[in-house]
Amino acid sequence: MRIVGGKYGGRDLLSPSDFRVRPTAEPVRAALLDMLAADIKDASVIEFFAGTGAIGLEAISRGARRCDFIETRPSSLHALKANVALLRMKTRTRIFKKDAVPFAAQLNEDAYDIAFADPPYGSRMLDHVIKAWMEKRFSRILAVEHERTHSLPKGDETRTFDDTTITIYRRAAPSA
């Protein structure tokens, strides 16, 4: 696994040896960040269910200002910390060993520019994160990765890759 584009493009990332961790495939990650290219520059980002941190680190590589990572699994935290150190991004990142669902629910409105969520497939955790976002709009954009068969509220953009779908929700611009 590696960073696909931007300043750190081509740099390898460490993956945990936990079979339950499913890192986002490089073509899916590249497409997701390409879909958000106009929004990434200088963005404050949060990655729920961060795993290796590949999405947030890719966002920084492409111009995001900073990223907070939310993760609980020890093997993922180890890989995430190693990847942040490897890319020398400690001053632009924070890592929280927290459960993503209650963390999302306690966020204030506009806490971040972009939020990424990629929970384990087959769980309903993503539904709870989306619900929290719809109630508080803790970011301008919520980008989620999920199984193609996982039924979610309609997003502003959707793209499917085999069994994986990316759905992007955008907060409506204020009326003039």
Polypeptide structure, described:
The protein is of the alpha/beta class and 176 residues long. 31% of the residues lie in helices and 24% in strands. The chain has six helices and seven strands, in the order ααβαβαβαβαβββ. It has helices at residues 26-35, 37-40, 54-61, 74-86, 100-106, 125-136; strands spanning 44-48, 66-71, 93-97, 112-117, 139-147, 157-161, 164-170. It has a seven-stranded mixed beta sheet with strand order 3-2-1-4-5-7-6, with helices on both faces. It is globular, with a radius of gyration of 15 Å.
Oligomer: single chain
Structural class: alpha/beta
Question: What coarse outline follows from CA principal-axis ratios?
Answer: globular
What is the distance, rounded to the nearest whole angstrom, between the alpha carbons of the first and last residues? 45 Å
CATH topology: Rossmann fold
Give the full name of the CATH homologous superfamily. Vaccinia Virus protein VP39
The succession of helices and strands, N to C, reads HHEHEHEHEHEEE
CATH class: Alpha Beta
Spell out the blueprint of helices and strands.
Layout: H1 26-35, H2 37-40, E1 44-48, H3 54-61, E2 66-71, H4 74-86, E3 93-97, H5 100-106, E4 112-117, H6 125-136, E5 139-147, E6 157-161, E7 164-170
